[in-house]
Amino acid sequence: MEGVVYMRQILVAITGASGAVYGLRLVEELLASQYRVTLLLSRSGRQVVKHETGLDWQGSVEERREKMRRHFGCGEALEHYDENDMFAPPASGSAAPMAMVVMPCSMGTVGRLAAGISGNLIERSADVALKEGHTLLLVPRETPLSTIHLRNLLHLSRAGARIVPAMPAFYGQPQSMAELIDFMVGKVLDGLGIGHRLFRRWGDDAS
Which residues make up the binding site for FMN (predicted)? Predict the structure, then answer.
């Protein structure tokens, strides 16, 4: 039964890197596929969401939760906690196991995770995922990468995280930004072992 619970719950975190639309699109696809989603946003993540998409998810945690559910057209399938709520279920290793995706993942978040710092619920949830051996996917969105960034990403990879850089491919001849976004979301779904048809795979018949 633990495997079933694990596969039906996904935690998605959006931090302060550019590319908030990646995380939002991932949540859409997970909900459409009947997964339960816990959505966490850092303060910087909420600011980037507002700047890049116009979505104003300010207010109390209850108000933010309701705004998110209206945006995604869902009910209790989507849960949301404040980034400082260290008593939320994802903060405990004894809670039901979840796969976790940080999309996009800022270099500040990468650095704190690599150092084992749990300063908020996002960082603590990722720390729990690593220590419990659960799936953790990080989608860094930064360029260029410094030696410090690369070292931190390598450290996290060796600790068990899967690094999926935001690098959309062009071999499928994308015709829109939406297709580029879907490619990255599809690669994350691949990492989670979730089937999808968001992009044409190499070798598939173009017809």
Answer: 16-18, 42, 106-109, 141
